[in-house]
Write a structure and sequence with these properties.
mainly beta; six-stranded antiparallel sheet; 0% helix; 2 domains; Methylamine Dehydrogenase, Chain H; five-stranded mixed sheet; Immunoglobulin-like
């Protein structure tokens, strides 16, 4: 769409045109920044320029971009010599961040070509986690854990719920065949495995059709976290009946073997794999005092307790591998390690984090609100604690974060 109107002067910071030369000046345009999302293949470009000394009116508006776009808009017949010209273009996008440069110019009714004006548009992925929007879901049950895997978000939680979405604008409730609480989920490349209360273990090739692989007969047997190493699953939790940690191992997600290694009065809530080391975290009690628990293993069989280095706080709740370091978060404490053996901890008494994810540039933590960090240690609150529901988990898709823990809603960033 193009509009042409009379105007006696120029605008913007450009110098006035030569009084006798067919020219344009005063370029104004929007947007200057475009945020990528999976379904975005183009964006709408709005431009405005001043023109002067057109002969036979203004005939065409042209726009070319560094991405190869070459767009022309015909202007309705007119006899304007000078004035303001506004135009709207639909410009195609690549799927990756980039800086587009563009040139814009006009052609008058006699075929004369004006000078060109230039600008830039930045196409970015917004992983800042600074702005959050609430989106509703149909489930009345509370999700506990969310991941992004196999091109979709997958959340598990109360009453055996699984909620899936490949676009945060629509969520689908899947039926698993159990009402047991689900706490953790992972993706191996060929199947999802979810774990939870009563030693519940479920598998699914697609997140829709689920098979129960294990249901225990002890209500105090809980599996909280699970990871795939490329050759085996390791699930971690707590055997409350025996008052000890629980570690389960499986190569196929079907047949599971319990590790003989346990920590008395402890529970494990999360586990990560770096490519050569498992790190599992949780908490344990010593003389009535709850303290952070951290275990490591090169193979999922031989475990070493490295909790003595954990200072501050009283539990470690989640751990991730970022491809260069481990980061763990907890109640009043967070820590990091390049090798999983030697750890540095920072006490954050006012911050309680239950989950963490990493975009490749930004850490986002979920707990008593949502927090962001550039290093996984120093945190800034981005979404307040609403005092009703604890944000339990957060995942990054490559374009968008989704945080869960509320009933009948999720939090997304950025919101579209």
């Amino acid at each position: 769409m193009v509009q042409c109107s009379k105007n006696g002067g120029t605008s913007g910071g450009n110098p006035p045109p030569n009084p006798t030369t067919f020219s344009i000046s005063g370029l104004e345009y929007d947007p200057h920044i475009v945020t990528l999302r999976p379904d975005l293949t183009s964006f709408t470009f709005y431009g405005k320029i001043n023109f002067a000394n057109a002969k036979g009116g203004v005939h065409q508006l042209r726009l070319t971009t560094s991405a190869g776009a070459d767009l022309t808009q015909d202007i309705p017949a007119n006899s304007e010599v000078s004035g303001i010209l506004t135009g709207v273009f639909q410009v195609g996008l690549s799927a990756t961040p980039a800086t587009y440069t563009f040139d814009i110019w006009i052609i008058d009714g006699k075929g004369n070509i004006s000078n060109k004006l230039s600008g830039t548009v930045q196409v970015v992925i917004d992983d800042s986690g600074k702005s959050w929007q609430e989106t509703t879901i149909s489930s009345t049950y509370q999700p506990n854990k969310i991941i992004w895997a196999n091109s979709q978000f997958m959340a598990v939680g109360h009453a055996g719920i699984v909620i899936t979405s490949n676009s945060v604008s629509g969520w689908t409730l899947q039926h698993t065949g159990t009402n047991n609480m689900l706490w953790g989920i992972t993706w191996s490349g060929t199947q999802y495995v979810a774990v939870g209360e009563n030693k519940t273990i479920l598998t699914s090739p697609d997140g829709i059709n689920w098979t129960i692989r294990s249901i225990g007969d002890v209500s105090d047997f809980r599996l909280y976290g699970i990871v795939w190493s490329g050759s085996k699953f390791i699930a971690v939790g707590a055997n409350m009946a025996n008052n000890q940690t629980e570690i389960q191992e499986s190569t196929d997600g079907i047949v599971w073997t319990a590790s003989p290694f346990t920590v008395h009065s402890g529970e494990l809530t999360s586990i990560a794999w770096s490519g050569n080391l498992f790190v599992a975290v949780g908490s344990y009690f010593v003389e009535g005092t709850r303290k952070p628990l951290l275990l490591t293993s090169p193979n999922g069989i031989d475990w070493t307790n490295r909790s003595s280095s954990a200072t501050g706080g009283y539990s470690l709740n989640d751990v991730i591998w970022t491809r260069s370091k481990f980061v763990t978060v907890g109640s009043g404490v967070s820590g990091f390690s390049n090798d999983g053996i030697n750890w540095s901890y920072v006490a954050n008494p006012a911050i309680g984090l239950l989950g963490v994810c990493y975009s490749g540039k930004t850490f986002v933590g979920a707990g008593n609100g949502i927090y962001t960090s550039s290093d996984g240690v120093n945190w800034t609150q981005a979404y307040p604690d609403d005092h009703l529901y604890t944000i339990r988990s957060v995942a990054w898709s490559g374009y968008q974060y989704v945080a869960v823990g509320k009933v009948m809603s999720m939090l997304v960033s950025p919101g579209y």
